[in-house]
Design brief:
Radius of gyration: 29 Å
Structural class: alpha/beta
Family: Belongs to the DEAD box helicase family. DDX52/ROK1 subfamily.
Subunit structure: Interacts with the U3 snoRNA and is associated with the 90S and 40S pre-ribosomes.
Distance between the termini: 34 Å
Number of helices: 30
Helix content: 40-55%
GO molecular function: ATP binding; hydrolase activity; RNA binding; RNA helicase activity
Strand content: 5-15%
Strand order of the largest sheet: 2-1-11-3-10-9-4-8-5
InterPro entries: DDX52/Rok1_DEADc, DEAD/DEAH_box_helicase_dom, DEAD_box_RNA_helicase, Helicase_ATP-bd, Helicase_C-like, P-loop_NTPase
Number of strands: 17
Protein name: ATP-dependent RNA helicase ROK1
Largest sheet: 9 strands, mixed
Bound molecules: adenosine-5'-triphosphate
Length: 719
């Protein structure tokens, strides 16, 4: 079924060329999930992959002497064609000594190769600890000894910032293909099969960079990861967590309880992570569960959770346990879970009996993953997240913080929290393990594979007109934006989402499914309603979903063709996340439309900057760019305080009426309100009003002429 054709009232619409069609995310095609790569690294990677393939049966033997993965190491090997390719691709300043290109291990890459591959994929790994802490790193390899000597030099007070940066930079071994997960990193064979079943051909950049760090035999680091939206971070953190638990089950067969926690800011995202996790844990003996109200967790070493997460479960959207009658709930078998996926408040409430007792601990948790970590450590969730972090009392806890955006304040908070924790545990900072940061691409930037349209609509009415054009593709052909369903529309507040939904409800023609094709999703709906809407949108029954920032982060609708920012986002980071709902896993053809009005002008520059950087990352001609330099120069800069205020409250005139009315006379707010009636209902009402007024006029005229009708009947709408 072609949603675009059905939405088009004109049957004369010219068919869109198949070339354009095949580029749409909704076709499900993703040529390559990697966003960054160069011909040099392609050559290098295929040479490495090819060499493995040629050896064929020998691969099995090689597995026996897979070297320890050490991200500080620089294994040496004899010069090969591969090395020569690599050497040719690094600049003179990065030329390496003969030792660097000599290695006694065929499977490992030398530093030049690693550098070439990581650089070409725009992967940057940094040791976040203070240099003194790095110096205390226990060493095992020759190379580490070399590093230690180097560190002595770094003690010199003359070390410039640039030199310090260079000293912190690391070039760990990249993952060349998913087969290496088994052959080189020895993950559980069942887990490897489950990964293979996903049918992914090449690892994305974040997978290429983080999986070796987390699966290697070197001490597992704490890890901060900043990688683009839709780049496969979920798989990157789930594989190591699951593998660690499989190993744990072997080494500690009698220890049962929550071994890993994954925290996410919304129920929708938590539920999605569980669904992804279920595909990976099948047959491994590991259990993954979504936290729900009423579950018992705590320091009795047992997660008393409902057994709806058995590996055989369908993996569809979760139904709410708390919605079930108490009697029914009591009959649900109680079981233990290894991985608990939760929103912060839900877990904090469970650990503190809704904040009536001190927090219980989770003594067995060895892995704490914070997905969308910057929002979890933002003031809104910070206290709850830090409480959860503290509750994970095991000394071997490792944390992973993952997001597409990460302010330096979040990095500082992470560093200080880890430091405090180590001091409390009596461990020397930096001694047991490292805190590394891995960044893919440019930090805090939008993905380069989508088209951004920043549209000046002057007024709220202008925005509505623009949106209606998008909903009627025949009319939209007059403008240059052609956005095919399915797509998301973001508003600033829940009342605005509800009102916009009512406004547009009857805009979709009945032959295209009518009002059932458009829905609204926000946090005031019940959990059951939210799950149903998510399910119907994923199934393609809903084509247009009006929502708030509830869906801005993490949720993965693979095939959505675009995102409409009906209201501008509250910050550049929110823009990055909202528009990142399209263009997932490298899919081309996604569109991000952002409308702005006169009132928004002070807030547009940060968004225009993000678009500009994303277009630069994409490359292409200056003339192709949607953000021209004159616009960037003309847009005003926002003060720090105004930025903060905008981040917390959004555009003042669009705040919920009561809030805005308190602070001003409400006139501005009234002007920005969206009617809660649909355009269709309003047109009907206006006609009715017009008919009544006309009838009154006729009566008055008749009375004046002495000819009054006594029936007073109304003859309906004169259409
Ligand atoms: N190697 C791969 N090849 C192709 N697709 C992949 C690969 N890895 C993951 N994917 C798919 O990419 C999509 C996005 O993955 P995921 O949701 O983990 O992104 P993310 O990085 O967490 O994004 P966000 O920052 O928006 O949360 C998913 O549909 C996932 O199945």
């Amino acid at each position: 079924m072609d949603a675009f054709r059905l939405l088009t009232r004109s049957t004369k619409l010219k068919p869109v060329s198949s070339a354009t069609d095949s580029r749409l995310p909704s076709t499900g095609k993703a040529a390559n999930p990697q966003l960054f790569r160069t011909a040099e690294s392609d050559n290098l990677e295929s040479a490495k992959n090819g060499k493995k393939r040629k050896r064929g049966a020998a691969v099995q033997e090689d597995e026996e002497d897979v070297p320890d993965l050490d991200f500080f190491s620089s294994n040496k090997r004899p010069a090969t064609t591969v090395t020569e390719i690599a050497a040719a691709t690094v600049g003179d300043d990065k030329k390496v000594s003969a030792q660097d290109v000599a290695s006694d291990d065929e499977d490992s890459m030398d530093e030049v190769e690693r550098r070439t591959i990581l650089n070409s994929h725009k992967i940057k790994v940094t040791d976040m600890r203070d240099l003194e802490e790095i110096r205390t790193e226990p060493t095992s390899t020759k190379d580490s000894k070399k590093k230690k000597k180097k560190s002595k030099k770094e003690e010199a007070p003359t070390l410039s910032k640039k030199e310090q940066k260079r000293a912190r930079r690391l070039f760990p071994e990249p993952l060349l293909n998913f087969k290496e997960l088994r052959s080189k990193y020895k993950i559980s064979s069942r887990l490897a099969e489950n990964v293979a079943e996903q049918g992914f051909t090449v690892p994305t950049e974040v997978q290429l960079g983080t999986l070796p760090l987390l699966l290697g035999k070197s001490s597992e680091p704490d890890l901060l990861v900043v990688a683009p939206t839709g780049s496969g971070k979920t798989l990157s953190f789930l594989i190591p967590v699951i593998n660690k638990i499989v190993r744990h089950h072997h080494s500690h067969p009698d220890e049962h309880g929550i071994l890993a926690l994954v925290v996410a800011p919304t129920r929708e995202l938590a539920s999605q992570i569980v669904n992804e996790g279920r595909k990976l844990v099948a047959g491994t003996g590991v259990k993954i569960t979504l936290m729900r109200k009423g579950m018992r967790v705590g320091d009795d070493s047992v997660a008393d959770v409902l057994d709806e997460n058995s590996e055989e479960s369908s993996g569809s959207e979760d139904e709410d346990a708390e919605n079930k009658p108490a009697k029914e709930r009591a009959n649900i078998p109680v079981t233990k879970s290894d991985i608990l996926v939760t929103t912060p408040l839900m877990l904090v409430n469970a650990l503190s009996a809704n904040r009536t007792t001190t927090m219980a601990t989770l003594p067995l948790v060895r892995s704490l993953v914070m997905d969308e970590a910057d929002v979890l450590l933002d003031p809104l969730f910070r206290e709850q997240t830090l409480d959860i972090w503290k509750a994970c009392a095991h000394p071997d806890l490792r944390v992973g913080l993952w997001s597409a955006t990460m302010g330096s304040n979040i990095e500082d908070l992470t560093k200080s929290t880890i430091k405090e924790r180590l001091e409390d545990l009596g461990q020397k900072p930096g001694e047991p393990h490292a805190l590394l940061r891995l960044v893919v691409g440019l930090k805090d930037s939008a993905i380069p594979n989508i088209d951004h349209k920043l549209v000046y609509a002057a007024t709220e009415q202008g925005k509505l007109m623009g949106l209606r054009q998008l909903l009627r593709p025949a009319a939209a052909s007059a403008s240059d934006i052609r956005l095919r369903p399915p797509f998301l529309i973001f508003t600033q507040t829940i009342p605005r989402a509800v009102a916009l939904h009512s406004e547009l409800k009857y805009d979709i023609p009945a032959e295209a499914g009518g009002s059932s094709r458009i829905a609204v999703l926000h946090s005031d709906l019940s959990d059951g309603q939210r799950s149903d809407i998510m399910r119907d949108f994923r199934k393609g029954e809903i084509w247009i979903l009006v929502t708030t920032d509830l869906l801005a982060r993490g949720v993965d609708f693979r095939g959505i063709n675009g995102v409409v920012n009906y209201d501008i986002p509250n910050s550049a980071a929110v823009y990055v996340h909202r528009v990142g709902r399209t263009g997932r896993a490298g899919r081309e053809g996604g569109i991000a439309v952002t409308y702005y009005t006169k009132e928004d002008i002070p807030y547009v520059k940060s968004i225009a900057n993000i678009i500009d950087v994303s277009e630069k990352l994409r490359g292409g001609e200056e003339g192709d760019k949607s953000i021209q330099k004159w616009l960037l120069d003309a847009l005003p800069n926002l003060s720090k305080n105004s930025k903060k205020d905008m981040k917390r409250h959004g555009v003042k005139a669009r705040q919920t009426p009561r809030l805005a009315d308190k602070e001003d006379d409400g006139k501005g707010a009234r002007g920005m309100r969206i009617s809660t009636k649909s355009g269709f209902e309003r047109r009907l009402e206006n006609k009715k009003k017009g008919a009544i007024a006309a009838s009154r006029n006729r009566k008055a005229a008749a009375a004046a002429s002495g000819n009054v009708s006594d029936t007073g009947s109304w003859n309906g709408l004169d259409d």
